[in-house]
Amino acid sequence: MRAEFLAARERRLVTRGIALWNQTEAAYLAAGACVTTPPLVKSQAFSVTFPKTGNDKLVCLVHENMTGVVHVLDAASVLPFDQADYDAQAADAGRDLLADRGDSDTHFGHHGRMLTPAIVAGTGEVTANGGGSMTRSILRFSDEAITIHVGDTVEWTNEDPVTPHTITFGLEPGDPMPPSANVTIDADGARHVTMASTGGSAHSGFIVSAPQERVFPPQAALGATRFRVTFTHAGSYAYICALHDDLGMKGVIIVRP
Ligand SMILES: [Cu+2]
Asked: Which of 15, 40, 83, 128 could hold 44 in an S-S bridge, CB 3.0 to 4.6 Å?
């Protein structure tokens, strides 16, 4: 059973209205039940009690490749692995992600058929083992600062297979998923804003690849993968990814006359 991400987001909004959601919350996982937290931040905790033996899958509703399984054995059973075994498996998986050969042709840089000037808004890698797939994401813009001329258009593209990013100038919206009202759609589907002053605001909404297709579910909608901004006045335009700015995902466009 998969909880609705939107329902979890709603709950976050409600609980934030009352008090910051930072206490330990316990949930009781009954057979066939589904429990979920609202989005958690650092130092928040969540505990689940497993009353029955069996195999319970867990997923992150935000990061779709973040999955796991809790195998619940009878209390009298001998556990098949110890912590050192799990640590070794995790280290092996980490080496796979960092050594992915795809790195050699998906490094940051201006490649492929893009408008110039172009900025890559995040890259990532996917690897898999018997437990499922896992991802590594680089939460950075490829160029933290670029200089252009008045009238130029900058294009951002997200090359991460799963992680969404935003390009956000000025006011940060409460809900980062939809684009700001001043965004228009180009003929090729890219989102586009014209900025006429350094005090203006523009928000791309989630820029994300469409998820990988599976055999039986309906096809996913085409992702919004590109965002363009045309700068009509000189100045320095700072921007952030509204999801990852606290981790350093920021940039600036310097516009010369
Ligand atoms: Cu981001």
From this structure: 40
Ligand 1 geometric centre to CA of 52 (Å) = 39
Q: What is the CA radius of gyration of the chain?
A: 21
Ligand 1 center from residue 140 Cα (angstroms): 7
From ligand 1's centre to the CA of 244, what distance in Å? 4
Cα of 115 to ligand 1 centre, how many Å?
21
Half-sphere exposure of 97 (CA within 13 A, CB side): 18
Domains of the chain: 5-80 (no CATH), 114-256 (2.60.40.420)
d(CA 169, CA 208): 18
Q: How far is the CA of 81 from the centre of ligand 1 (A)?
A: 36
pTM for this predicted structure: 0.76
Instruction: State residue 8 phi and psi, 5-degree precision.
Output: -65, -40
